[in-house]
């Protein structure tokens, strides 16, 4: 009986699979941010609770801090320095309407700067759209803005005035401020991952930016030949527009607003580009 030769089956050659980060478009990122919108709400609620945990006054700090700032700014710049506002309204009402928008913007910068390095687990252990991390940091200060807005209504009542019907445009100007804060926050959060001394520079930057913005003075306070300096400030448009909306006096400075809006949009677009370009290295650098 002839032995049948044993035929050994040869396994097919397995080609190695290489996984590497690819380039992702902006629309893909935006679709994923929308898909994870419930997680965004959870992160916002988490930060709100952490901010006021074990505090005596809790959310009332969002009211007392702007109120104290208004008193100090009125005394120092309104009485001692003799700076006058625009629209022929009391200076406390004028300065608070501008400072209210600035409080939101500065709070957004402070939160977004450390947003990525403060959420190491989200970056290294699970997958979430990275754009959501700095976005969450600029949404949280909206709560403080709404609480501080009550003081503005109280000032109108104190001076026997009524907010103008232009106030319906408040969400629009707040959205412009959010857009500028998002663009700057993307730059700061991505740079902080590589350069950890950025958070130490931001308070100084914010303070200088405050005096370069029409908060304690009106846009017409600047001589015409230097108007372009505040026009290239992305916060000039939101502050000037919001003040015009709630006070309803005078004519909005269309030229300053258009230039400021264009700079804000360019800043946001460049921030998104830089963030998407560098987000692939976040996990390695952190």
Give an account of the 3D structure.
Helix content is 65%, strand content 0%. With 286 residues, the chain is mostly helical. Helix 4 runs antiparallel to helix 7 (141-158) and helix 4 runs parallel beside helix 8 (170-194). The N and C termini lie far apart (71 Å). The model has no long low-confidence stretch (mean pLDDT 83).
Question: How is this fold's topology laid out?
Answer:
Elements: H1 26-35, H2 37-52, H3 61-80, H4 91-113, H5 120-124, H6 132-139, H7 141-158, H8 170-194, H9 198-211, H10 227-231, H11 236-247, H12 254-278, H13 282-285
Helix pairs in contact: 2-6, 3-4, 3-7, 4-6, 4-7, 4-8, 4-9, 4-11, 6-8, 8-11, 8-12, 11-12
Q: How many DSSP-defined strands?
A: 0
How many distinct helices?
Answer: 13
For the sheet with most strands, the description reads:
none
Instruction: Please state the structural category.
Output: mainly alpha
Please give the alpha-carbon distance between the first and last residues. Answer: 71 Å
In percent, how helical is the residue content?
55-70%
Gyration radius from CA atoms, angstroms: 25 Å
Report low-confidence residues grouped into runs of 5 or more.
Answer: none
Shape: globular
The proportion of strand residues reads under 5%
Mean pLDDT: 83
What is the string of helix and strand elements? HHHHHHHHHHHHH
